[in-house]
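Aim 2, interim progress. The first record below pairs a target sequence with its C-alpha cells.
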Amino acid sequence: MLVVSKRAEGPAWLPVMGAQVLFAPIDRKMMRAARRAAVKALRGEDAAEADEAGDAPASEQLEELGDALSVALILAGALDWKDVCRMADGEDASAGEPLPFSRENLEHALSDPLIFDAFDQAYVMPFVMRERTKNVSAASQVGTGEAAMPESDTASSPAKSAKAAGAKPARTGSKSPTPRKRKASGKS
C-alpha cells in the first residue's frame, strides 16, 4: 500500500546535544542533491581517489555513502541554531563564547564524529525511518483477523464423499492393518 504523509508545515527546532537547531523539512529536491553529493563523495575528486574508493569493501562504501548523504542533508536543512558555543581552551572550564550560525561553523561542527552522529540522529534518521516504514508491502492475511477469516458462505470442512454402490476400497501398499484390541494386564 502506498502511504502519503502530510507535507511538513515548515522549519522546526530540534534538540541536538543540549542545543536547538532549526531544520527545514527534507524534500525531494534536497534528497536528490544529497544523493548526488554522496555519489560524488564516493567517486572522489580525482582519479586516484576514485581508484581507492573502488578498492574499498562494499560495506565501507555504503558507510561512506550514508555519511555523505547525511552531511549533505544536514548542510541543506540546517537553517539556524541556539545555545551553540565554541569550546574554551583546555585550561578554561567555562562554556566558551557563543558560536554564530554559518555554513562554515556548521561544517566545522560536523567534522566532530559525536556531533555529526547527534545531528544525524535528530534530523536524518527520523526521516529515513518514516520513509522505510511507510513504503512497504501490506502484511499477508494470516491469523484470526477479519481479513484472514473465510466468508460465511465458504465451507469450513470438506464435503463427505458418497460411496459408490457395491464398490470396495482398493487395496494399497500403504494401508495400515486394523488395530487389535489389547488385553487387560494380568489376564490371560
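The second target in this work package is listed in the same format:
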Amino acid sequence: MRGSTIGQGVAGIAAVFALTACSGGGTAGAQQPSSDLVANSSTSAAPTATSSPSSQPSAEPGKQQHTGTTPASVSASGFHAELTIQQAGLGLLALENTGKSPVTIKGWPQLQFLAADDSQLKVPTQNVEIPGPGPSITLRPGTNAFAGVKWETGDKGNPSTFVATTLKLVPPHGSGSTVVDVIGTDGKKVGYPEFDVTSVKVGTLQPSTQGVTVF
C-alpha cells in the first residue's frame, strides 16, 4: 500500500474516495471509521451542465463578481472549505471567504491528501474544465465559490491505492493550506473520514453550483 508518502489523510466510500466515518461530534479518544457514508444519501447532485469538458494537466448569500483578470496571491487562512458528498465518488467543494475583505480567485483549488501520519500522499490529480473555464471570481466576505471533485476508489490492499484520513486545500494563486471539512450524504460533518483513492479529478471554481459536478 502507498499510504505514507506525502500528506494527511479519510475507511471507504465505495467509489473514488472510499469515504467511511462517523458523523460530526464524535467522543474523545480513538475511534474507527464507521459505515459507508454514501449509503444514506440525502444530498442531491448539482444540476447538469450542457457543455462538454476539456482537461488540463494537473499539478498539483451575497453577490459575486467575476472578470477575466488574474487574481493576486491569497492566503488559505482566509477561507473555509467543505466537501459535500453527492454520491459515491463525487463531491461538491465549497470555498467560503471567511475574511473581512473581498478576495479574487480563479482556476482550480489544489487538494492535498494526507495519511494517518500526516505525510502528504502523491495522489494522481487532474484539473479539468468542468463545467468550463474558470472565471475570475471576487468573493465578498461570507460568499462561496464551488467546484466538483470526482475520485476513483481502490482496494486498501492494492499498492496503487492511497489511504488518506485528512483532506487539505490550497486556494488558486494562494499560500498555505486549510483543512477541508467532509460533509456526508446525510448532511452531517464526518468526524473520522477515510479516502481510499487511486486518482482524482478537480473541476474549475465557479460562482454557482450549476453543472460543477457533471463529470
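Residues 1-70 have pLDDT under 50 and may be disordered. This observation will shape the mutagenesis plan for the next reporting period.
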